[in-house]
Design brief:
It is a single chain. By secondary structure, the chain is of the alpha/beta class. It has a domain of 248 residues: Aspartate Aminotransferase, domain 2. Helix content is 39%, strand content 14%. The chain has twelve helices and 13 strands. The protein has a seven-stranded mixed beta sheet, sandwiched between helices. The longest helix has 38 residues. The chain is globular. The C terminus is likely disordered. Bound molecules: ligand 0PR.
Length: 401
């Protein structure tokens, strides 16, 4: 499209937009079952549009928002067992993970730094390592789809600078044995980053709901930083990721002095300069409005639906779950059908699901209702029936997992 010469009336533009955006999926339709984002909470939506002009890139201009960000970091730090944690609300998990690896690199004196990550880690670590000139060493998983701790130990070498553990993996919502990783990190003087981009807003509330939750946060002395994203299970509008460092010293490793700003000299410990104050305000409003009680209620509802979904899947011939869910992420596989065909058929029926090598991922986000699950199961049964129908003697395709 070429930028036209003439100005257009706002009404015309809005109409045009409405037409163009009609193709997009909506969370309210209940058809988005494969996303880690959700419909932003109404209070977050309200304050976000009200404070659009706030810019935390020039914090001296907006001391009020700067204070709110500090309070958020304190609240999230408390949630993750360290009220003294320091950090920022950033653009998302990718920026948070990048900042963590950057801190690890700057704190280490090593030249050809290597970072050990599980194969289940999010691709943001590959991106970050590429930018930072670090080598990524990927290790396999155990039978519970957690990082294989013995394999991590085996891959340690003089160039290793950091280890990454995931608390809520992208594909299956699994929590790595962070306690063991913490011990390895302490013994070998390594930086340990925990990616709880998704799980950070789930695990503390599961614990509140009396689920058995392994230690994954700053309680473990080796943990140097944690990613926790409000724009995933926190119900915040995009962009809102979170990076928390154990202490100021670690954060300082990535802090840059910016002396010339309109609001006066400041330090930025984020990748981006100009950044959304509205995002921070929305997160603050959400945390204050929902509190532990509110999030616990939301997680409880998501988990109840997750268990119902799992029960229903177990009743469909040819389909099974990859592993018992730890959080509201369910992996679906088949020993009978090619799971890619199942995903294809689901997409034809309008379902937005995620397809991983060997499994379909369903994320039961807060926008999902029981009716949506029922509808999904009905479609899944139809698909299983359709794919299961075969002529005599024909061999069914076997999925790759
Ligand atoms: N860490 C973990 C564990 C993640 O799952 C993700 C993304 C990230 C880091 C990176 O976060 P940002 O995307 O905020 O940078 N997890 C989702 C995923 O890959 C991202 C997503 C969200 C994808 C919504 C699709 C979608 O509709 O599935």
């Amino acid at each position: 499209m070429k930028l036209q010469n003439k100005s257009l009336p706002q009404k015309t533009v809005l109409k045009e937009l409405e037409l163009k955006l009609k193709k997009d999926f909506t969370f309210t339709s209940g058809k988005i079952l494969g996303s880690m984002c959700s419909e932003p909470h109404p209070i977050a939506r309200r304050v976000y549009v009200r404070y659009l002009e706030k810019n935390l890139g020039d914090s001296g201009l907006f001391p009020g928002v700067t204070e709110l960000e500090k309070e958020i970091v304190q609240m999230l730090g408390t949630l993750l067992s360290n009220p003294a944690a320091t950090g920022h609300i950033v653009t998302g998990g990718t920026e948070a993970n990048t900042l963590a690896l950057w801190a690890a690199k700057r704190l280490s004196k090593k030249k050809n730094g290597e970072v050990i990550i599980p194969v289940s880690a999010h691709c943001s670590f590959d991106k970050a390592a590429d930018i930072l000139g670090l080598k990524i060493v990927k290790v396999g998983l155990n039978s519970k789809f957690q990082v294989d701790v013995a394999a991590v130990k085996k891959r340690l070498n003089p160039n290793t600078i950091a280890i990454v553990g995931v608390a809520g993996t992208t594909g299956l919502g699994v929590v790595d044995p962070i306690k063991e990783l913490s011990e390895i990190a302490l013994e070998n003087n390594l930086y340990l980053h925990v990616d709880a981009a998704f799980g950070g807003f789930v695990l503390p509330f599961l614990r509140e709901l009396s689920y058995s939750v392994p230690d994954f946060d700053f309680t473990l002395p080796g943990v140097c930083s944690i990613t926790i994203d409000p724009h995933k299970m926190g119900l915040a509008p995009i962009p809102a990721g979170g990076i928390l460092f154990r202490n100021e010293e670690i954060k300082k490793a990535v802090a840059w002095k910016v002396p010339y700003l309109a609001g006066g000299e400041t330090e930025q410990a984020t990748l981006v300069g100009t950044r959304s104050g509205a995002s921070v305000i929305a997160v603050w409003a959400l945390l204050r409005h929902l509190g532990v009680e509110g999030y616990r209620r939301i997680i409880n509802r998501c988990m109840r639906l997750t268990w119902k979904l799992v029960d229903e899947i177990k009743g469909i011939e040819g389909l099974e779950i990859v592993t018992e869910p730890v959080m509201n992420v369910v992996g679906l596989k088949s020993k009978v059908f090619d799971i890619r065909k199942v995903a294809h058929e689901l997409r034809i029926k309008g379902w937005a699901i995620s397809l991983f090598p060997g499994h379909i991922r369903v994320v039961v986000m807060p926008h999902i209702r029981w009716g949506h699950i029922e509808h999904f199961i009905k479609d899944l049964k139809e698909i299983a029936k359709k794919l299961g129908v075969r002529k005599e003697g024909e061999v069914l395709a076997v999925s790759s997992i």
